[in-house]
Specification:
Length: 214
Amino acid sequence: MALEKGTIVATALRLLDEVGLDGLTLRRLAGELGVQAPALYWHFKSKQLLLDAMAASMMAARQGRLPLAEPAKWREWIADYARLDRAMLNSCRDGAKLVAGTRPSAELFAAVEQVIAGLESAGFAAGDAMRGLSTLSGYVAGFVLEEQADRMRPDAGQAPPDMEEFQVAYPRLMAGLAEVGDPQSDQAFEGGLQLILDGMELRLRAQAEGERSR
């Protein structure tokens, strides 16, 4: 049976969940597929091209997302976009590291084009739409990177430090944590997301006021 690209990518993503990005080698992948490593080069000239294809496959969830239908609801729409991206990156072990190290695909450019067009329909200038989207994407990627790295720490699950001593040493940090909660929690993610959206909304209002004063 001939080896197909789709089979290679699907097997590589399954193996990624088992061994992580650092443990994913072409030799190991070839063993899973029951072939010799050189056979993979018929389909992917380098490991990097395979990683690009894996990232594109994982990010296929971005395709088919509905465009912004009601410009006045841009905030809810872009927030859902960020939440879906977080879920997508968390759908695979080391998903954030995988995407960060790969070349953007045509599908990704199409998704970005759709988001910028949606934000423009809500009144954003193209530059501000791009800045907002880039900031959100960086926030989501960084948040997931921390989430995934924290899960793989060798001391994960160990007892926390003495909180009374911690309170005395770092009172302002503890006050912040009391409000924010676990830095890798859904609550923390939503708090940071809304902070970015607040900034985008202020920029949108300033732009509208500037246009009215002309």
